[in-house]
## 1
Amino acid sequence: MSQTTFTPPAAARMTPQELRSSMSLAAVIGLRMLGLFMIIPVFTIYARTVPGGDNGTTVGIAIGIYGLVQALFYIPYGWLSDRLGRKPVIAAGLAIFALGSVIAALAHDMNGLILGRAVQGLGAVSSAVIAFVADLTAEANRTKAMAMVGGFIGISYAIAIVSAPPLFDWIGMKGIFLLIAALAVLAIAVVFWVVPDPGAKPVHHKAPFRAVLHHPELLRLNFGVFVLHATQIALFVVIPRALVAAGLPVARHWELYLPVMGVSFVLMVPAIIVAEKRGQMKPVMLGAIALLLVGQVLLATVPHTLWMVATFMLIYFLGFNVLEATQPSLVSKLAPGERKGAAMGVYNTTQSLGYAAGGAGGGWLLAHISGNAVFAACSVLVLAWLAVASTMARPPQRGRSDVAARKI
């Protein structure tokens, strides 16, 4: 175990220890999410080869149950980490996640896969990791640290979406599940041997959940992340099968995902700069939500040729990546200092509920109606989000207003 201890300084520039803390904890979440995201592009194809996998509702449950179970355990993990320490709780959660991955790898039918996915969801360590980031960074550097975590998640997502199809062709779904378990074990090693120990045991303060739940801007962001991840997962209930039907074998899906994710990340950068440095967060967010809506409507109404699907996914993921980067930052800015942990806990919980709803709902619609019905339902959700977000107050800007926000 690392013998390094750390007490966050009150500085505007991140110290080497803060950089080490932030990057290593971001790597922990990134390794875990890399494995999780690898499942998304190929699971519905694999399910067809498993007894019970011809039922779209069952497949959707297998995808979504992870998010549902995870949502139930975010707050307990944070609570336990306050009392037992961050490292042992995070390591235990990662070990449970690895166990669930092994169960899924050994499963012979959809019931076994659902069990494995549920056990994976029991390893809901994100809230404890985020709390650990807060322990090891100064208040002035907290947003930078959270941005690193978000960046690692985004990179993990891009790598996973591109690498999953060829990996599926090479080692199969069972091999991917075992690889996920290995990544979780590697993350445990990072926790104990790379992440510094805090200088003092974290003090538990009762989180004022009522104040967080009544905050109108946070409620808008929570609804937004629910819709964002529900539509994302529902999208991948249908898209892999649509690509196969359009003539692109699973092993070659990366040929579509790689340019889509690469171009969307490049195009995202100017939008983030405009949002953060020029104080245009609200119009950028509304534009990104509008892109989600356009992408879903086109997927619902236009025939699915490979070029069309690639174009529509590019539109969708440009909006998705912008929102995935800006929304957590807004949560940290809008929640007063002592309420940041509670706000992120609720945000993460609604994100996981969206994951569960997107998997189960998308699977049911695919099984009972059609793939286009999935995109139509997602379009309605995104339209509702656009209406809700249009009434949001202008978010705090960097500089003076940001300093003022810290004093609340």
Note: The chain has two domains: 15-201, 205-403.
## 2
Amino acid sequence: MEQLAGFFNSNYHLITIVILSVFLGIEVISRVPAVLHTPLMSGANAIHGVVIIGAIIVMGEAKEGDFLSLGLGFLAVLLGTLNVVGGFVVTDRMLEMFGKKKKK
């Protein structure tokens, strides 16, 4: 318990920033119109490509035989790729909704 209290005492400024960021994020998202939520979230998914780069770096720096790092890195690359592709697919579908209708 003393270690936990020591951690909070030494990092209280970082914890405060995280808590304030959560409240700020909730406030900003609540002011976005409902029509823009899907494009906003799909764009945010596409930005998460940074996760893929970080996972590749983790896998590249893993020591030989460190299967935990390699497995978690592979899982992060796989899920990050799905997130990015899904973001682009949803964005493309949303943009098609605002395009001109094709005549038959």
Note: The radius of gyration is 20 Å.
## 3
Amino acid sequence: MLFPPSLSTAVLERSFRSSNGEIGVLPADTEAFLAACEADQIEVLGWELWLVDHLFDPESGVPKQADGVWCGLIPTLEYDLPAVIAGEGDARLTRTDIAALNLNAVVKPQWLRYARFNFTLDL
């Protein structure tokens, strides 16, 4: 199990699922995910932003289309090189970090539709 049991089916259906079962939830679904973790007493250890259905291409320096996989190197507005966007902490701190993260001001616009949050859980 790589997500809380009480997470709604609707959130799961909208989420990206990697080959190992991890999920990447839409930014709009992060609160539902964290609330389900709290309800199920599952400790959150941190989070990472993914670009889904993409794989980093070292030759071009940007992600390329690759169905079913994810990329953790995010093209940002601030840096020429892609960055890992992640944080550590429990559900409360994760909620605060994500709320403070303005994806529109950080991630290059063409990548926003592929952005998903993945959470590290203590299962």
Note: Helices lie at 9-14, 30-39, 91-100, 103-106.
